[in-house]
Amino acid sequence: MATSKFTRRGTICLEDAEVLGHDAFPGEQFILRLRAPRCAARAGPGSFAHLSCDPLLPMRRPLSIMRADADAGWVEFLYKAVGTGTRLLSRRRPGERISLLGPIGESFRPTPGQDRPLLIGGGVGIPPMVFLADRLRRDRGCAPLVLMGSEVPFPFTAAPSRMLVPGLPADVIAAMPLMEDWKVASRLASLQGYAGCFEGYITDLARHWLDSLSGPERGRVEVFACGPHPMLEATARLAREYGLPCQVCLEEFMACGVGGCAGCTVQVQTPTGPAMKRVCVDGPVFDAADVFPEGAGAMVNAGE
């Protein structure tokens, strides 16, 4: 990494964040907006924050940052209530205070010259893709293709896209309204038969698009992904098959979130051989080929 771990740790802030909004969606999904100006000023796509879910629960929970507005001083998270901590967090209301530690971790690093980004997000892996799409359109002036998959209802009301995406099936028209507002093309995939969605895996939808590109067009594509382990592994295989650079954002169980406990380590290939890296501070973004080398299941974690 270009940034030393000591410099990176110096960007982590502890804030007493105010709840600005907390909206519930089907499938026990929630979007939480916090006033946390120091975190908002430093956050990048792929970074996360460690939140205190309840004053009586000592262990924090890591949540990927979905959006950040440095000028307004807020950060936003999409999460699913799946355990004691996140269920307690889901009860927090506007005006309450939440202890926030962040932003933490390495962000996505788009490669200069790869001006056709393909963003793939699955389930709770959608937030970093939203953040990255926003950053790409604002800072680089390029419009990515964002593909999102979910087996529970999406945390937004899907809308028919007004943007044509050559190479995708004509009946796949469901899109994220926020992306439409940004003039960023998006499409949705699910095995649940949701109207307008691609019926299949998100990587199969990505293959449709990649197969429609000419060789020179495909050479400008870079893949970014976040989601469940099987989806990331399939994305890494897809990128390898087409010879595309690919970065993945990993999601792991974490205790401290700042590299001290080493409870979130994964095996990564390095020039000198396999090494154990901490997802929280060495990641969560890694080169896909380092985490999923050809012919090997590289991820090692007791939580898998």
Bulk shape: globular
Q: Portion of residues in helices?
A: 10-25%
Please give the domain count.
3
Unreliable segments (pLDDT under 50, ≥5 consecutive)? 1-8, 297-304
- Side by side, the strands of the main sheet go 12-11-8-7-13-14-17
* Cα-to-Cα separation, first versus last residue: 26 Å
- At the fourth level of CATH, the homologous superfamily of the largest domain is Nucleotide-binding domain of ferredoxin-NADP reductase (FNR) module
Largest sheet entry: 7 strands, mixed
- Predict the CATH topology of the largest domain: Rossmann fold
Q: What is the residue-averaged pLDDT? A: 91
Q: What does the radius of gyration come to? A: 18 Å
Count of distinct strands? 17
CATH class of the largest domain: Alpha Beta
The number of helices is: 9
Description:
It is a single chain. With 304 residues, the chain is an alpha/beta fold. The protein folds into three domains: 5-104, Translation factors (Elongation Factor Tu (Ef-tu), domain 3); 116-247, Nucleotide-binding domain of ferredoxin-NADP reductase (FNR) module (Rossmann fold), CATH 3.40.50; 250-304, no CATH class. It is built from nine helices and 17 strands. The strands form four sheets. Strands 12-11-8-7-13-14-17 form a seven-stranded mixed beta sheet, with helices on both faces. Strands 1-2-5-4-3-6 form a six-stranded antiparallel β-barrel. The chain has a two-stranded antiparallel sheet with strand order 9-10. The radius of gyration is 18 Å and the shape is globular. It starts with a helix and ends in a 13-residue tail after the last helix.
